[in-house]
Each structure stands twice: as C-alpha cells, then as structure tokens.
Design goal:
The complex is a heterodimer.
Chain A: H1 3-6, H2 17-30, H3 41-62, H4 64-74, H5 89-108, H6 111-135, H7 141-171
Helix pairs in contact in A: 2-3, 3-4, 4-7, 5-6, 5-7, 6-7
Chain B: H1 5-12, E1 27-34, E2 39-47, E3 53-61, H2 64-77, H3 82-86, H4 90-97, H5 104-125
Antiparallel strand pairs in B: 1-2, 2-3
The chains are: A mainly alpha, B alpha+beta.
Subunit structure (chain A): Interacts with HscA and stimulates its ATPase activity.
Organism (chain A): Shewanella electrica
Pfam family, one (chain A): HSCB_C
Chain lengths: ~170, ~130
C-alpha cells in the first residue's frame, strides 16, 4: 500500500501536515458508513476496509519517523520490524551519556538542566532530520541505507524524548 | 504483558551492574543498541592472558527483558573462554528467560553485545 498515492501526494519526506489533514477529512467523508446505508454488503465491506486504510495512512504520514519508514519501505528497505542492532559506538556512547544525564536530573530534580537537555535533543533531532530529508530524495541504494541509519537514530532520540518528558512531568508533581 | 520469574529476578537483583576502569588493558567493551525500542547496552569483559573471561559488568538502559538479558550474560560468560562465550546464542538467552516473541530483540541485543566486546578483544590482540 502506497499511502502517498492514497492521499494523492508526491512520495517525499516533506509533507504539509495541515494539507494532509484536509485531504484526510475529505477521504473520510467519501467512505463514511452513512453513504453506504443502502449499498450492498460487499460495498459496505469495501468502504470499511478503505476507511481503515485511510486511518492507517494518515497516522503513518502525519508522524515524521513513521513517514520516513514508509518511504524507505517503498524504496525496498523495511526497518519497521527489524531486530537488527546498531553498533555505531560513538553514537551509542552519546546515547549512554544522555541517558545518564536524564538519570541525574530525575534525582537532582534540576528543571534548568532538563530544559537545557531538551534544547540539545531538539537541535540534534533537527540536524538529523534535515540530512534525512535530502537522503530520502535519492534512489541510490547506499544513500537509502544511510537514510535508514538516520531514521534509526531518530528512533533512539524519540525514546530519549519520551524519557525526558516523563521526568519533566514528574518535576511538576 | 507478564514477565517470567527469571526476568523479574534479574530485573530486581541485576548481577554485575557497573563499569570497569576504562584504562585497564584487560578490559574490552561492547556497545550495542536496538532502534526498535531505543534500548542501549554496554557490556564489559575482563579477559586474562589465557583468554578466559574473569569478570563482566554491564549497564543497560531499556526494558526489564533487556536488563535481564544483559544481567544473565554477565553470569554466563564468567569463567568461560573467549571461544565458549562467542558461541552463546540469543535463543539460549530467550529460552532461559522465557522471553515472549516481542522481546526476542532483547536477547539479540545481549548476544550482539558479547560479539561486539569480543571483536574489540580480537582487534586488540591482532
């Protein structure tokens, strides 16, 4: 299933989420169960499965990591369900350091340190995302593998961000 | 999802947590990460001149199964030769801890951590 085609959008990483939302609502209207009240059972079934596709497609294209994974999948690289491990030592060292910093903050309850880390994560994510955007425009196999590595890094960053938000929430309790 | 008793035991009483002195020449380090869940694992092995693993330490940021998998392998590798340690399979770890299919990647992470550490050992010896 090519979700870009479903939403009649070019298959690129650069998606305007407001525009995507408009397209989503229009597609939803067209497959709404009310429109199929007098239709045959088969048509009703088709409408239901199309609604499910539209919902999946919207969730996938709305979120940058899932959108990037979908683009990679369309280019023949499936990393969604991979169990492969990453061995980039310097990247992992950095991840360890950030995890340790988060651990320290959860003990020290230092809100300023948490804000500072939030900025650091934000800048790092922005830098990787910008590179990813260029890499995903390519069809060259080695560039696509490099793009996949960038998406993997963003997945680690998403995990760090979840942890940070959890700690920040606890600071306000 | 219910964790097995063995996972809970290793999670609540993790064995060999921590780090060795970085500059110790007999220490090698394996760093690995699982993008699917964002887990990171550091495994350190202290290997003597005869190629026997004398001690092990780990530090893992991840779910209970990832912590249990790394805790378990630090116990398993102690006293083993480098060759024996290299033959530890993720399936052995998964079986011992009764990991459900969705947590198999945690055992793969632990196996790959041993492999990464032993690779450093080999390149150090070469």
């Amino acid at each position: 299933m090519n979700y870009f085609e479903l939403f009649d959008l070019p298959a690129t990483f650069d998606v305007d989420v407001a525009d995507l939302s408009t397209r989503y609502r229009e597609l939803q209207k067209a497959t709404h169960p009310d429109r199929f009240a007098n239709a045959s059972e088969q048509q009703k079934m088709l409408a239901v499965s199309r609604t499910a596709q539209i919902n999946d497609g919207f969730q996938t294209l709305k979120e940058p990591i899932r959108r990037a994974e979908h683009l990679l999948e369309l280019k023949g690289v499936d990393i969604k369900n991979e169990t492969q491990t990453v061995k980039d030592t310097s990247f992992l060292m950095q991840q360890m350091e950030w995890r340790e910093a988060l651990e320290d903050i959860s003990h020290s309850r230092d809100a300023d340190a948490a804000d500072e880390l939030e900025q650091t994560f934000k800048q790092y994510r922005a830098a990787i995302t910008e590179q990813l955007q260029h890499l995903l425009a390519s069809d060259d196999a080695s560039v696509i593998q490099n793009a996949a590595d960038h998406v993997r890094k963003l997945k680690f960053m998403a995990k760090l961000q979840d942890e940070l938000v959890r700690i920040q929430d606890a600071l306000f309790e | 999802m219910a964790y097995s008793e063995k996972v809970i035991d290793h999670y609540e009483n993790p064995r060999n947590v921590g780090s060795f002195e970085k500059d110790d020449p007999s220490v090698v380090t394996g760093m690995v990460g699982a993008p699917a869940c964002g887990d990171v694992m550091k495994l350190q092995l202290k290997i003597n001149e005869a190629g026997i693993i004398e001690d092990a330490r780990f530090k893992t940021y991840g779910c209970g199964s990832a912590i249990a998998s790394s805790s378990l392998v630090t116990e398993w590798v102690k006293g083993k030769s480098v060759e024996e340690a290299a033959s530890i399979k993720n399936t052995d770890i998964a079986e011992e801890l009764a990991l459900p299919p969705v947590k198999i990647h945690c055992s793969i992470l632990a196996e790959d951590a041993i492999k990464a550490a032993l690779e450093e050992y080999k390149s150090k010896k070469a």
